[in-house]
């Protein structure tokens, strides 16, 4: 899941070298933290959060094969 989020985020931003993705698992829930440069925050979130919602939807669809719950947090 971490690699998927990283690939999507790098294709959206102007400064892909400043992307940091961390993945932690606790109680069967996978939490993915995506950190981007402040000037790229709007590109990752999108108008009214549409791009962020799309990223979360793609990750949840990929995680559904393994019956795991995934939470994507953008910082």
UniProtKB/TrEMBL annotation:
PROSITE patterns (alphabetical): KH_TYPE_1
An annotated GO BP: regulation of cell shape
Subcellular location: Cytoplasm
Signal peptide as annotated in the record: none
One of the record's GO cellular component terms: cytoplasm
SUPFAM superfamilies: Prokaryotic type KH domain (KH-domain type II)
Stated family: Belongs to the KhpA RNA-binding protein family.
Biological function: A probable RNA chaperone. Forms a complex with KhpB which binds to cellular RNA and controls its expression. Plays a role in peptidoglycan (PG) homeostasis and cell length regulation.
Protein's name in the database: RNA-binding protein KhpA
Organism: Coprococcus eutactus
Native organism taxonomy: Bacteria, Bacillati, Bacillota, Clostridia, Lachnospirales
